[in-house]
Design a protein that fits this description.
By secondary structure, the protein is an all-beta fold. It is 0% helix and 55% strand. The chain has a single domain, classed as RNA polymerase II/Efflux pump adaptor protein, barrel-sandwich hybrid domain (OB fold (Dihydrolipoamide Acetyltransferase, E2P)). The strands form two sheets. A four-stranded antiparallel β-sheet has the order 1-8-6-3, with no helix packed on it. The protein is globular and about 35 Å long. 11% of the residues are buried.
């Protein structure tokens, strides 16, 4: 299982995946808004999304757990 943590704080602009969904490596999972810039986060591996730990519009912090993916 891979746990994706945030590299920076900001606000969740768009969530493009949900638990139970299959994703491919390189697919965009969600986009943060950080200082008026969009920062996309990609799946590091192909697998099934087990959990998404926030919703669109949420304020998030650096190192916060974002998404869990199982191979």
């Amino acid at each position: 299982m891979i746990k994706i943590e945030l590299e920076t704080g900001g606000s969740v602009w768009k969530v493009l995946t949900k638990p139970g969904q299959r994703v491919e490596a390189g697919e965009i999972l969600f986009i943060l808004e950080v200082m008026k810039m969009e920062v996309p986060y990609e799946a590091p591996i192909s697998g099934e999304v087990l959990a998404v730990h926030f919703s669109e519009g949420d304020a998030v912090e650096e190192d916060q757990l974002a998404v869990e993916i199982a191979e």
